[in-house]
Amino acid sequence: xxxxxxxxxxxxxxxxxxxxxxxxxxxxxxxxxxxxxxxxxxxxxxxxxxxxxxxxxxxxxxxxxxxxxxxxxxxxxxxxxxxxxxxxxxxxxxxxxxxxxxxxxxxxxxxxxxxxxxxxxxxxxxxxxxxxxxxxxxxxxxxxxxxxxxxxxxxxxxxxxxxxxxxxxxxxxxxxxxxxxxxxxxxxxxxxxxxxxxxxxxxxxxxxxxxxxxxxxxxxxxxxxxxxxxxxxxxxxxxxxxxxxxxxxxxxxxxxxxxxxxxxxxxxxxxxxxxxxxxxxxxxxxxxxxxxxxxxxxxxxxx
Length: 303
Hints:
Strand content: 5-15%
Number of strands: 4
Helix content: over 70%
Oligomer: single chain
């Protein structure tokens, strides 16, 4: 069943979009990521213009993340205080990111920037997570509990605050900076930023894995909601028809993903996420390196 997307100005199969939304919703519930790092490239692949894909995907992440957070709130695995600190940084970052996005859009460089950002960030984060997860699984098999650093440079910073749900007493500076980075990525790349947020919360802030997923989703809801609003009012690139179809699939998928995630060990979840991140990175890198079939579409100045 083909549907016409008025802002994207293309016709797409409705069931394909519902399926993509559902798949990304499952990831959202399992890993605490918005799923945009996977969905935005998939939207490129099915012919959605990059500017529309980025702005609309931020909207869909709101719904799938909200659905996932409800499930985590019932289990009391959301650190609302930490989520609020991350959120403050996220809103600042989102405002900065939309400004950069608008500037690059005026230069016609958005498509290239988005793809390069994906390859860089996904490659680095995926590799680090994969190596760490393998080490954690090896230690678990050998009978040693996975060592978690109790103290690093983060603990020496000023402006400390107590986060009871996470069992932490740390400076608010690192969470705010992580939030700013994720906000910028949400605006420029159409992602919730969970693929950076989750590792940063575990390894940098030292939060327990069981609290990380719900807290990440809580913060993502507001940052992506704010990003959507900015894109809709400044770029007019939010396609409501596309958003609704992705949203319906995402809400259902998030509930399923939360149930699956609860049954897997933390190390297994992290290695699965790492493999997924590296797979998407590889596909995008190939697309940038392989010579396109229609060369005139790349450099057709003045024709």
